[in-house]
Write a structure and sequence with these properties.
alpha/beta, Rossmann fold, Isoleucyl-tRNA Synthetase, domain 2, Isoleucyl-tRNA Synthetase, Domain 1, 5 domains, four-stranded mixed β-sheet, 29 strands, about 20% strand, ligase
Length: about 900
Amino acid sequence: MSMSLPKAYDPAQIEQKWFDIWEQRGDFCAHDDSPRPAYSIVIPPPNVTGVLHMGHALNNSLQDILCRWKRMCGYEVLWMPGTDHAGIATQNVVEKQLAAEGLDRHQLGREAFVERVWQWRQTSGGQIINQLKRLGASCDWQRERFTMDEGLSKAVREVFVRLYQDGLIYRDNRLINWCPRCHTALSDLEVEHDDKKGHLWHLRYPVIGSDHHLVVATTRPETMLGDSAVAVAADDERYRDLIGKTVMLPLVNREIPIIADEYVDKEFGSGAVKMTPAHDFNDFAVGKRHDLEFINVLDESGCINENGGVYQGLSAAEARQQVVADLDALGLLAKVEDHTHAVGECYRCHAVIEPYMSKQWYVAVQPLAEQAIAAVENGQTAIIPRQWEKTYFEWMYNIQDWCISRQIWWGHRIPAWFCSDCDQISVSIEDISACRHCGSTAIVQETDVLDTWFSSALWPFSTMGWPDKTLALDKFYPTSCLVTGFDILFFWVARMMMMGLRFMDEVPFKEVYIHALVRDAQGQKMSKSKGNVIDPLIVIDEYGADAFRFTLCAFAAMGRDIRLSTDRISGYRHFVNKLWNASRFALLNLEDFDPATSDLSVAHLAPAEQWILHRFNQTATQMNQALADYRFNEAASILYTFTWHEFCDWYVELSKQPLNGDDPLARRQTQMVLFTVLEGLLRLAHPILPFVTEEIWQALPGQRPNKSIMMAAYPSGSGVVTDAGAVAQMELIMAIVSAIRNVRGELDVSPGQKIKVLLDCNDAATVQLIRAGEAAIGSLARVEDLVVGVAIERPEDVATQVAGNVEVLIPLSGLIDLAEEATRLKKEIEKIQKDVDFFTRKLGNEKFVSNAPAAVLEKDRAKLLAAQQKCEILTQGLDKIVALQQSTC
């Protein structure tokens, strides 16, 4: 006996219920000793501070689709979950809490502050994990890891020490990106550049021994306090005689040289460039070449330090204003120009980044990068879509050493100790109490922590137990696939490649699928400031996780950004409702059906049954291929077309006659096919629509060997072999029905009005095929009088369509008044043409287009397009009516 389903589908009633059952039963758990082939994915660990956003929703929906699909295909699937400790972001969160209490971390001290962060993590951190579960993420949650847990900390220390011992980790005093708000170094990848409107100040530097001035142009006049040279191009005729001479640095009154260097662009500004090696990356390189003095004029908070003389204590912005005013007062400000330039900001707090001289820890990455490049070049790892390989190579071939030290307290503290007696550094996996070089106990551990990305670079193997040799590593490493966004291709993917090859001698993943961004309906990036953010949790509450997942999948075209709107999600909620209602119909007609006592005999199947089984096999084959190729949008489209247009619109309607008829054998065969296709369709749809498919599948009649649909076999496409002739017969019947429906639509014939149809066939065999399907044509096309024959007599006034080798003729006499219909269409066209003219004039107004908001323009353009399309359709209908009028004259 089958179970009935409620009339209305309510996601809230089933989604949490089924997720709890799956998780409590251990349905997501992977088994290290399983004989089944392995398929593994590591989750891109979301920040412990994070909440679910659209990027997470897309990324994890696609991973879940792959994992559920592979699980049903017979693989032992490990989807490794976890969160990242997010050093800077998490420290910022807790520091804000302390500030609200009138405290700061320095008052607490390092040990107490770190303990406070751990407390926050236990009580408030990681809420995104529960949010991912609401999405349906089938991770092996029992294995959840955290980049600061004991096992991963052990792996981090092991990697650091081995790289140091191999000479690939070193310390150096060089220019780095410094965040004056977070008080820490940042890598190049952690700096976001944004074009800002600013100024180009032209400053006069007096040339020593002459009455002349050398004019330099700068966007940061406050850094002149740390100038150690002025550079010009060697071939610049204006300055050739000045090379080797000196200028007096204004305000500071320090004599600095005039040098020639290839870096200078003589066409930019005045062609003379101030050199501040301690505060500009390009100047740093010039300073190294010319052995210039490196003068740091900023402190850790971005304020002028003791090297800035009277400006000490001013912020960079305040110093800029004062320096410019003082130069102007001295007559040394030549001019000021408006200038737009890229300004670097901290990717966490968005403070302006200062290039800053500091001693930091680095990884010499070139030897590691060479292996990672070769692994992609020789196909060990494929990056999909392929165009991202070029981006990967360009970055890897030009890679710079990686600054891995951060001046914060939350994170993996660098396992290095400084000895005050011998000035040597000791590194160790375990904490030490004496210098490894001289035995002195006068040692102090490095206060810096490692860049968050250092620990996440080890994620594919550290989460599986490395450096210990574990069954998980043997079974699931290298992982099968990584699903990620292009924005962390260098932050994370490249670094995992380097570390995996170095410490596991294998690539960390065989394929990397790079998905696009989720944007709003107008194609703009979602941001709180624009007010166009769509909250995934609100979407799930309103439409259900299944509809949301299907929408993301349907628009996840390879290499193309997703334009998302709640209207689209609402549209796919209708699709879920369609599946639900078709299933309710099926269950009502399967109440007396037991699949265990029924035999699917192809010989007794009607053409409609043969056709739907054939199409199901084709759909299953296409779905498997689309998922294997990461063409998620194609998979969704294939599933949508079969479910809505073929199973629901065609087969469910075709099944009503035998289900309600007097032939018990026909009824039993239709029940068997209805059950077989619906049960297979649910399995086919499960990876994308996990909740609704489980609920319906459990309601189906009969006993199945699996406790959950996710454990059932995924349809392969090699199901019941059907008869090609019967399939072709059904496709002809469907083509005839579609042709009749087209004519009815074009002539605006009422859906309830029954009509007469003549089918003129080429041969008697076709006549016989059609007569076998007369009942279907009559019910589906609302035909009460059907004439089928070869070379039949044609009435004078007919509408004509062609279906295969059959001419479909619909007599118009008594069906439609051609003159009246032509008049109606002309009036409708005139009405729509007014809309076309109105929006054409409006959008042709240059003043309106230049001043109107983008959203308004987009809306008006859409209205114009819709009106034009409607007008075109009505005009085509009128043309047909006029042609019919002429043919009857």
